[in-house]
Amino acid sequence: MKRIMRAASTVATTGILLLGAGITAHADTSSHTIEFGTPEQVTSTTESSTSALPEATVDCGIGTTVHNRVTSCSNYRVPVQFFVNEQPYGTATLYTKATAQLDPRNRYEWHQKVELRLVDPSVPEAWLVSATVSLDCNYCSATPGGTKVLIPYTTQTFDITVSSPGRDLVNDSIRPRGTFTAPRFDQGAAYLGDVFRPRCDNTPRVTPRTTGGCVYPDVPPIWQIDVTNPRVDAVGWHVLWAQNNLQHPWGKPRAGWDLHRTFDQTLIGANRGVACGPDVPRPPGRPDLSCDEYPFAQSTEGASRNPDYSCHFLDRNDNSREGSLRKAFLNSLRTLEGDAFQVDVINVPADRQAPPDVTPRGPVGCGHD
Fold first, then answer.
1. Distance in angstroms (rounded) separating the CA atoms of residues 146 and 227
2. Is residue 310 a contact partner of residue 246, using CB atoms and an 8 Å limit?
3. Sequential DSSP letters for 66-103
4. Which residues contact 188 (CB under 8 A, 6 or more apart)?
5. For residue 289, what is the DSSP state?
6. Boundaries of each Deoxyribonuclease NucA/NucB domain copy (predicted)?
7. Residue 160, beta-bridge partner list
8. Where exactly are the structural domains of the chain?
9. Burial of 265 from C-beta contacts in 10 A (0-12 / 13-18 / 19+)
10. CA angle at residue 161 from 160 to 164, to 5 degrees?
11. 65, 326, 296, 43: which is closest to 193 by C-alpha?
12. Cα-flanking dihedrals φ and ψ of residue 239, to 5°?
């Protein structure tokens, strides 16, 4: 078997660390240890979340770690070395892929999985490595993944069920961990994936209150408004105009001007009062229209705190439906007070022209409508 050399390119912050050794199982007094090197060239990315459904699961290639608001994945290639009396004796390579599927509607049960595959063993003992997989976390409880023999070139899967006890809001830190044994060799241990930090809560305004749920809060959810959907198209065209014509592209994905959700009724009322209050002229003879403001009144970037806003009179039903759908979407991804979110207007035609009946005519004032 060829000897596997340790890769020169490594990432220290996500390195797999040797955690310790147990009592030797052999009769002689020589030292036999298994050591795990740093994973080869790991890159970390995030993906947008437009859904809380299971099909939104992310995947990751070798040497990457990625997560969205409800799922995570890390995939490492790790050099393994066997030492006798602190001298190199043999090598192998360990592939480890760790995935998690959080449940934003139930904090008391979600699922994580670790897949291990050992290849290129250069000594007989490397053909008989056993692995036991568990989770390290601050607040969670988890069922052990069990112990399995890592038959070379065969993927072994360890399934773990995780719970976040209690009802308090907690920010956890979770990382899969493995302990490894081989004939004549002391037990070694290593982390098997990146650290991910779910937040679990039972916030009353975000249903269901009894079971709560968990998300990765560092990934903003993206609310999509489809301009080809006649139920909300008028709002979509207004948001698109605002994102393209205000001083800042509020809420536009990856633009750096996220919105932040608020449940504060005083602030929401103040935002509406500035953007769409009684002093704003109404289009005469059009009771079917209502005033729509952007950034949304339910954001801390609303008009009472931010003079860079737009308002437009549009179809009352469109306005109401969009607000209800947006609330349900943000709740489904546990978007709490102060959480960032983004707004993406989709299916915009190539000429970017809105139908005449939904074309915004100006930013602040609404009297021009």
1. 50
2. yes
3. EE-SSEEEEEEEEEEEEEETTEEEEEEEEEEEEEEE--
4. 18, 19, 20, 21, 33, 34, 35, 36, 179, 180, 181
5. E
6. 288-343
7. 112
8. 12-204, 222-358
9. exposed
10. 130
11. 65
12. -60, -40
- How many C-beta atoms surround the C-beta of residue 8 within 10 A? 7
Each residue of 258-289: pLDDT tens digit?
Answer: 999 999 999 999 999 999 998 888 888 888 89
Block residue for tokens 């249903």: 207
Is 351 in contact with 359 (CB distance < 8 Å)? no
Say if CB 173 and CB 214 are below 8 A apart.
Answer: no
What is the distance between the alpha carbons of residues 348 and 350, in angstroms, rounded to a whole number?
7
Q: Kindly indicate the confidence band of residue 363, based on its pLDDT and cuts at 50, 70 and 90.
A: very low
**Alpha-carbon distance 305 to 270, whole Å?**
9
Residues 161, 142 contacting (CB under 8 angstroms): yes
Cβ atoms 116, 64 nearer than 8 A: no
Q: Give the model's pLDDT for residue 46.
A: 79
Q: CB-hemisphere CA count at 13 Å for 36?
A: 28
Q: Convert the pLDDT of each residue in 60-97 to its tens digit.
A: 999 999 999 999 999 999 999 999 999 999 999 999 99
